[in-house]
Specification:
Prepilin-type N-terminal cleavage/methylation domain-containing protein, mainly alpha
Length: about 40
């Protein structure tokens, strides 16, 4: 059980990184889509 695929800490860290990247990229994508609509 020591060599488990993902420990809870690794999962939380990766989810945090994904969340930060998504928070940085989503606003620009939303504004880009709004500009296309106009």
């Amino acid at each position: 059980m020591k060599k488990f695929a993902f420990t809870l800490a690794e999962v939380l860290i990766t989810l945090g990184i994904i969340g930060i990247v998504a928070a940085m990229t989503l606003p620009s994508l939303i504004t880009r889509n709004q500009n296309k609509a106009l």
